[in-house]
Amino acid sequence: MTSTTPGSPATALSGLIGFVLVVGGASGLLHEWLGWFHFMGFVRFLVPEGYEPYGYGVMVALGIAVGAAGDSLAGRRRR
To answer: Alpha-carbon dihedral of residues 26, 29, 30, 33, nearest 10 degrees?
Structure first.
């Protein structure tokens, strides 16, 4: 069963940003480790040269945090 309550735009935006950060960071890590998989190429401009593995790891962690914050925001509005 689906909910008929509309979600807030902030919740949807935080979910989208969290998804892009997690997928971009994970694809960057795969590219660094394996050298052949680069799904979201634009994220390489967000990470300083020479610190790619650390930067991609931070992107994944930040994406998870943003997604969790968006879920928390959605949970507050349901009560």
So the answer is: -160
Prediction pTM value: 0.80
Burial classification of residue 9, based on how many CB atoms lie within 10 Å of its CB (0-12 exposed, 13-18 middle, 19 or more buried): exposed
**Residue 12 CB contacts under 8 Å (≥ 6 apart), including other chains:** none
Which of 8, 23, 20 is CA-nearest to residue 71?
Answer: 8
Q: Are 61 and 18 in contact (CB under 8 A)?
A: no
Q: Is a pLDDT exceeding 80 seen at residue 76?
A: no
In this structure, what are the phi and psi dihedrals at residue 37, rounded to the nearest 5 degrees? -110, 115
Q: Is 2 helix (H, G, I), strand (E, B) or coil?
A: coil
